[in-house]
Amino acid sequence: MKSLLVKPLTAEAFFEFGDVIEMDQRASQPMNRGMAERFPSLAKVETYGDKARAVISLVHSHRYDMPHTIDLVERHPLGSQAFIPLDDTPFIVIVAPIGDEVDASQLRAFKTNGSQGINYRAGIWHAPLFTPYDDMNFVCVDRDGQDKNCEERLIPEALRPQIDF
Asked: In terms of residue numbers, what domain contains 16?
């Protein structure tokens, strides 16, 4: 079985796949008479298709037993999909470029710092939420509409992420 190297998540490294949602090194604007700061436009919500709209959901992800094998990816061709953690726990983001099929050699893996969220661009292949450190809760911002917006593919050559705990 091949290994998949997991790297730290940065906006630069993840740019091809979507947005990193974080306050670090971002400009803020005062609000509520200076009692709060707003970090605006951290990610673009994409929605395509008939009667599509952006929705906000909550997601609970169970902790994965390790080692774990990645053998499935999915994509949402008609909209972006964001996951913003509600817990101060890292999680692993596994992605591949836009394309009709997925080449396992193109998969990339990133470890969040515990406070970073991510926004997958429409059409980006990604593994399901991968939470190897603990159960986690997320705010999910994505598309809802009449058209089918989830495609799954099995990866013929499964990979095992190499995580430096």
From this structure: 2-162
